């Protein structure tokens, strides 16, 4: 009789403000067994799309109201069970959660305890769109499988290497320290994964290269990574600072908020909602989807053109700034929904930077691919790359490594 195999599967939950993305992976070969997405949580038109990649099941879609993240996770659990991949499976080693704000405490993936949850809860005011969803995801997953290790992988962890000169705001230092006001940075799992994948694409070790990573999704951030360590990133105390995003303003003179309060008579909550939800691309032109913005530009829409130009202008400023921070740049890597798909954004962001060694080959830029690739000509001094991010795989790896102490070889139970 053979002894039972050690569990090798990890379920990854990436709970966003109104969505949950999930993947079930087998860490023996990092293969995906099921992937899915629940979107528009809390609306009447919620949608769950579930794709089993193992067991011969078909892609399924459910529409109709899903009230909250708790209901969303229960629906995901039902879908997985239908494919024989349910949370009750003894093959499951752990559940890995993306947790957006980890403050200064968490530098590495962490097994979730009540103390860890309390700290994540304490940080809700500085990640109001993200941490509450992460907490619900953790509590629901724990209720479904109380015996299983649950691991938090923090968006902030990769940025904890930032030097004080980059991490501090120039405000009264006692006030800042009393309230832990500093720049934390986010999307760190993606910046870590993409900077490493870019080094691999260049055939180098991460310690040998300096990379500017541009994570352009709904939320967007840039980072400067020197020899594998983050030295600067564009998001700050909260995920509001930095680049222009789908619905967030990014950088703004803080006095705009006083002005809105004193002159426009808006409340703090109204200003918060304005800057987080009604700004960025959606505030400028009514759309936050870059595909729709490009379509409108092609039809001659001036508002869409202006929104695109502001988005790209900010991006270019950050590329220049991070070039200066790094001194020598080996590669600029574009990632996430916009970075991976919007050739026009990549072209416009780097236009006119030939003197800095940054050149985009139009043919390579226009080509499409699901794998990491270079879009700069061979002669260019700085490589420009499109590198699909994979936050879920990175979370699964870190989770599995933490619970088994091994990421490559899977420990087997000794044969009886
Ligand atoms: N084919 C495409 N062309 C241009 N932009 C795209 C394309 N596909 C997706 N996007 C952009 O990517 C965004 C979503 O990026 P994603 O990384 O999935 O975001 P998030 O993880 O923050 O939800 C969309 O809002 C859209 O602007
Ligand atoms: C931190 C952050 O902005 O995340 P997202 O892009 O998922 O909203
Ligand atoms: Mg994302």
TrEMBL record:
Reaction equations catalysed: acetate + ATP = acetyl phosphate + ADP
A GO term from the CC aspect: cytoplasm
Location of the protein in the cell: Cytoplasm
Protein's pathway: Metabolic intermediate biosynthesis; acetyl-CoA biosynthesis; acetyl-CoA from acetate: step 1/2
Record-level Gene Ontology MF annotations: acetate kinase activity; ATP binding; magnesium ion binding
Cofactor details (free text): Mg(2+). Can also accept Mn(2+).
Residues annotated as binding ATP: 21, 215-219, 289-291, 337-341
Record-annotated site: Transition state stabilizer: 187, 248
Gene Ontology biological process terms from the UniProt entry: acetate metabolic process; acetyl-CoA biosynthetic process
Residues reported to bind Mg(2+): 14, 391
Keyword Nucleus (UniProt): no
Domain of life: Bacteria
Cofactors, names only: Mg(2+); Mn(2+)
EC number per UniProt: 2.7.2.1
Keywords associated with the record: ATP-binding, Cytoplasm, Kinase, Magnesium, Metal-binding, Nucleotide-binding, Transferase
InterPro entries cross-referenced by the UniProt entry: Ac/propionate_kinase (IPR004372), Aliphatic_acid_kin_short-chain (IPR000890), Aliphatic_acid_kinase_CS (IPR023865), ATPase_NBD (IPR043129)
Residues involved in substrate binding: 98
Active site: 155
Self-association and partners: Homodimer.
Protein purpose: Catalyzes the formation of acetyl phosphate from acetate and ATP. Can also catalyze the reverse reaction.
HAMAP family: Acetate_kinase
Family the UniProt entry places it in: Belongs to the acetokinase family.
Name this polypeptide is given: Acetate kinase
Species: Streptomyces pristinaespiralis (strain ATCC 25486 / DSM 40338 / CBS 914.69 / JCM 4507 / KCC S-0507 / NBRC 13074 / NRRL 2958 / 5647)
Taxonomic lineage: Bacteria, Bacillati, Actinomycetota, Actinomycetes, Kitasatosporales
């Amino acid at each position: 009789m053979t002894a039972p195999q050690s569990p090798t599967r990890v379920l990854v939950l990436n709970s966003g403000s109104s969505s949950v993305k999930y993947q079930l992976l087998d860490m023996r070969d990092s293969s995906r067994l099921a992937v899915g997405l629940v979107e528009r949580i809390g609306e009447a038109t919620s949608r769950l799309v579930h794709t089993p990649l193992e067991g011969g099941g078909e892609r399924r879609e459910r529409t109709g109201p899903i009230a909250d993240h708790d209901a969303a996770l229960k629906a995901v659990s039902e879908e997985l069970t239908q494919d024989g991949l349910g949370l009750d499976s003894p093959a499951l080693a752990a559940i890995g959660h993306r947790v957006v704000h980890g403050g200064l405490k968490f530098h590495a993936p962490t097994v979730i305890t009540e103390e860890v949850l309390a700290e994540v809860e304490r940080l809700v005011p500085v990640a109001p769109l993200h941490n509450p969803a992460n907490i619900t995801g953790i509590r629901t997953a724990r209720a479904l499988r109380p015996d299983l290790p649950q691991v938090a992988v923090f968006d902030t962890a990769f940025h904890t290497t930032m030097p004080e000169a980059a991490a501090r705001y120039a405000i009264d230092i006692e006030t800042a320290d009393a309230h832990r006001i500093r720049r934390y940075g986010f999307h760190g799992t993606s910046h870590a994964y993409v900077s490493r994948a870019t080094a691999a694409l260049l055939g180098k070790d991460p310690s040998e290269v300096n990379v500017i990573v541009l994570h352009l999704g709904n939320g967007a951030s840039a980072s400067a990574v020197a020899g594998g360590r983050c030295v600067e990133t564009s998001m700050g105390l909260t995920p509001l600072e930095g680049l222009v995003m789908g619905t967030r303003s990014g950088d703004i003179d803080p006095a705009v908020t006083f002005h809105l309060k004193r002159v426009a008579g808006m409340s703090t909550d109204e200003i918060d909602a304005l800057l987080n939800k009604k700004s960025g691309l959606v505030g400028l032109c009514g759309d936050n989807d870059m595909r729709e913005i490009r379509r409108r530009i092609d039809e001659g829409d001036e508002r869409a053109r202006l929104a695109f130009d502001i988005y790209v202008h900010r991006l270019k400023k950050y590329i220049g700034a991070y070039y200066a921070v790094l001194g020598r740049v080996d590669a600029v890597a574009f990632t996430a929904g916009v970075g991976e798909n919007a050739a026009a954004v990549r072209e416009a962001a780097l236009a006119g930077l030939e003197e800095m060694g940054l050149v985009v080959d139009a043919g390579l830029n226009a080509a499409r691919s699901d794998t990491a690739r270079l879009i700069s000509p061979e002669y260019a001094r700085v490589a420009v790359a499109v590198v699909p991010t994979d936050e879920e795989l990175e979370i699964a790896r870190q989770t599995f490594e933490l619970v088994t102490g091994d990421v490559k070889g899977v420990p087997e139970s000794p044969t009886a």
